[in-house]
Each structure stands twice: as structure tokens, then as C-alpha cells.
Amino acid sequence: MSKREMKGVSIRGATKRYGQTVALKETHLDIKPGEFVSLLGPSGSGKTTLLGLLGGFVTPSAGSIWIGNKDMTYTPPHKRDIGIVFQSYALFPHMTVGENVAFPLRARHQPKASWAAKVKEALAMVELDGYQERNIAHLSGGQRQRVALARAMVFEPSLILMDEPLSALDKQLRESMQLELRRLHQRLGATIVYVTHDQSEALTLSDRIAILRNGELVQIGTPQELHNTPKDSFVADFIGDATLLPVTRVDSHQIRLGSHTLTSARPVPDATELFLAVQTEKLLIDSAAENATANRLEGQITDTIYQGNSVRVCLRLQDGSLLTLRQPTHYAACQQLPAVGERLQVSLHPEDTIVVPRCT
Ligand SMILES: Nc1ncnc2c1ncn2[C@@H]1O[C@H](COP(=O)(O)OP(=O)(O)O)[C@@H](O)[C@H]1O
Ligand SMILES: [Mg+2]
């Protein structure tokens, strides 16, 4: 399977209501050809509904869905040229691996003579060539998910949709499948829309991530954009590993946190309720920070938790607010870490001093 003409996707003012329930508020979303976009949000936030609009399983209450340059709003799923992978593999248990992968070719009435070569190619992509005659029942969970992937790609769709395809797998397998998906995407140049509630998965895979909450697309951006300029307290809390502390606005670049005045490199939003969103890894123990412009905070260590790849340190500031920082566990860093009960000075760079309004 070669790199092919991939199609972009455009959701234009689509909404979905079920009776009184609004599953998806008015949504506008443009996805570029070849882009990998994740839909990330808690359970019930509207991810599957949005994916269903693209796949054609869900008809919008208003608005339209465009794939390539065509209005596909009322086109049934099998005529949309889309490959789909769900959480449950949805493979046919009574068919062999090869028959499962050939199924979309049969359904699309492609000439039978071409099936074997296409199946072989699709299976090779997921490193399962040679498994054609195997029984589905004898495969591991990871192998089944790879068969499901091969089946979604065998007819060279212009768009691939995936709904939590790895969530049934254990952590180790999930992580290796994530890397495999990443490589596959790079190799195929496929347009992929991927539903997940796991932020690390979204970060690993995506060019851009769309954050959903209560049926609303709150923000879409690259992983860096979401980290550095979260739109509100929901995004700041959902992305990364942050502590949110209430602060007051002093001026366009300064805030007050208890007795501390902090400078932010970015404009402080002009809202009544503001939070400082501090990512745990952005706080540096002061002796290591030479930067004179950095914000300084001082508190008492209430807890240190060794977590293998990092140490979490909980710090109580003078006004009582609790801050968490994460330190590397190499020898030098551990040496400079005071004991529980002792005072600690930390610094936060103005570029890492992120202030967000409360989500509405
Ligand atoms: N067929 C349906 N009938 C009624 N309500 C639905 C239906 N599908 C989804 N919903 C509701 O729409 C909201 C969004 O659901 P969904 O898109 O499945 O969320 P997610 O995939 O993010 O968990 C939820 O409140 C859900 O209960
Ligand atoms: Mg869902």
C-alpha cells in the first residue's frame, strides 16, 4: 500500500441532540489531509458522537459533514470510503484472519483475483503476514487488534476512524501498539481521527488534539499549544500533571498568589476567577535555577513520594495552598532534596507561569 491521496475533513456547524440531551453542541472542525487528530475528553463528553458524524452512524441534528470536497452529511457509512477500528475488535470469529481482512474487499465487490495480494500487503503492514489461515480465536488481544487494523486499511480508505482501539489491551501492549500506529501513520500518510480518554496516548499519537467537555469542543491544538496556552481551567487540568491554584490579577503580566507576586510572560486574562496552572515538572528547586527573572515560591515540604522515574514533592505555601513538583530521581537531584518538614525554595519561569480563567 503506497502513500495515497488522503482527504481532509470538515465539520461545519454540526450538532447532535437526542430528545432533550445535547450530545454535541455546535462544532466546527477542519482536519487537514494526512493529519492525525485525537478527540480527547472524559466519558460522556461527545467523542463517539463526533466520530459517528464522520463515520455516518450518527446523523447531525444541524450542520454538515464534508470529506474531501464532498458534502457527505447524508451519505451512508459504506459509501464514505472510511476504515473503522473500534475498541472491541468486531472481527468475525468463525472466519480466518485472511477472510476477516478480505471482508471489506468482498463487501465492495472488488475483483476476487486481487484479494490475496491486498490481504497480504495489509497484514504485512501490521507484521502478521503468514497468519492468513489462522483462526481468530487463537490470536492474542494485540494480534486481534492488528487484524482489525489491517481490515480497516485493506481497501485503502481516504480516512481512518478509531474509537479507543487500544483501551482493552494491557499497558505494555498498548504502548507498543501506540508506537506501531505512529509509524503506520507516518508511512501511509493517512488522515486519522482517533478517540481516546487517555491523554498520554493522545500526546504520543497526535498532530493535534481536540479537547471535548460536556458535548463541547473546548480547544484544539498541538500538544505544545495545549500545554503552553490552555484556554481555561478545564484544559489546564486535563492536560499534563498540573496543580491549579486560585490567584488574583495585579496587572496584565502579574498575579498574586498568597504573599507572592508572580510575573507571567503571557498576558494575564481579564477574568474574575483566575487560576495559576503549575505543571509539576516546571518547578525547579531554587539552587539549580540561576535565572534572576524567575518567580520564587517558598514553602514547607509536607510529603515526598518516590515514584521510580520521579519524586513527587508536596509543598505547603505560606497561605496554605498546596503545590506539587516532580523531581528527577538521579543522584544529584535526590541529594539536594530537603527532608519532610523542612523549607524549600522553588522557582517558576515566567514562560511557565500559566494563568487561566475558570471554565464556564
Ligand atoms: N443514542 C443515544 N441516545 C441518547 N443519548 C445518547 C446517545 N448516544 C450518546 N448519547 C449521550 O450523548 C452524550 C455523549 O455521548 P458519547 O458521544 O458517547 O460520549 P463519549 O464517547 O465521549 O463517552 C452522553 O451524555 C450520552 O449519554
Ligand atoms: Mg465513546
From TrEMBL:
Q: Which Pfam families match?
A: ABC_tran, TOBE_2
- In this chain the ABC transporter domain maps to 9-239
Domain of life per record: Bacteria
- Group of enzyme by EC: translocase
Q: Which UniProt keywords apply?
A: ATP-binding, Cell membrane, Membrane, Nucleotide-binding, Translocase, Transport
Q: Name one GO cellular component term.
A: ATP-binding cassette (ABC) transporter complex
| Catalysed reactions listed for this entry | ATP + H2O + polyamine-[polyamine-binding protein]Side 1 = ADP + phosphate + polyamineSide 2 + [polyamine-binding protein]Side 1
Q: What is its EC number?
A: 7.6.2.11
Does the record carry Translocase as a key word? yes
An annotated Gene Ontology molecular function = ATP binding
Cross-referenced InterPro entries: AAA+_ATPase, ABC_SmlMolc_Importer, ABC_transporter-like_ATP-bd, ABC_transporter-like_CS, Mo/tungstate-bd_C_term_dom, P-loop_NTPase, PotA-like, Transp-assoc_OB_typ2
Reported function: Part of the ABC transporter complex PotABCD involved in spermidine/putrescine import. Responsible for energy coupling to the transport system.
Instruction: Give the family, as the similarity comment puts it.
Output: Belongs to the ABC transporter superfamily. Spermidine/putrescine importer (TC 3.A.1.11.1) family.
Assembly and interaction partners? The complex is composed of two ATP-binding proteins (PotA), two transmembrane proteins (PotB and PotC) and a solute-binding protein (PotD).
Name of protein: Spermidine/putrescine import ATP-binding protein PotA
Q: Identify the species of origin.
A: Proteobacteria bacterium 228
| Lineage, opening ranks | Bacteria, Pseudomonadati, Pseudomonadota
Recorded name of the encoding gene: potA
